[in-house]
Design goal:
This protein is of the alpha/beta class. It has helices at about 20-30, 50-60, 70, 85-95, 115-125, and strands at about 10, 15, 35-40, 45-50, 80, 100-105, 110-115.
């Protein structure tokens, strides 16, 4: 049985809770990612997507340097352990339309598994 830990992207790029959205957006561009785990005191407190940033910026009509990560993040991220069966994670992602899953061992962030990771995995499986 395949686990999510076998397919996650290790060493994700977290952002701090009190960082500005301008810093978070720059970090996403620099690392070529669309989702960031949000940490506070070394613990996972949320997840931030590029879409979250765009929606909040449009709704608030403020610049990204005036808004904080905590203003836009999801404060209830989907977090699982690396040993979680991959099919369970994929079913939940599809059911809840979740774009990313944070992988943690206890309070320590281990990785991230995104919809893009799932598509890449599927493409590899289907390749002749």
């Amino acid at each position: 049985m395949s686990t999510v830990g076998e397919h996650m992207s290790p060493a994700p790029h977290p952002v701090g809770l009190e960082q500005t959205l301008a810093v978070a957006a720059q970090f996403m561009r620099k690392h070529g990612v669309r989702q960031l785990p949000v940490l506070h005191g070394g613990e996972i407190v949320g997840a931030l997507s590029a879409r979250d940033i765009v929606l909040l910026e449009a709704a608030q009509q403020k610049s990204l340097s005036e808004l904080k990560v905590e203003d836009a993040m999801s404060d209830d991220p989907f977090v699982v352990e690396p040993e979680t069966p991959l099919h369970e994670v994929l079913e939940k992602m599809a059911e809840k339309q979740i774009g990313s899953v944070l992988i943690a061992k206890g309070p320590k962030l281990q990785g991230i598994f995104t919809a893009s990771d799932a598509v890449a995995m599927l493409a590899k499986m289907l390749k002749p």
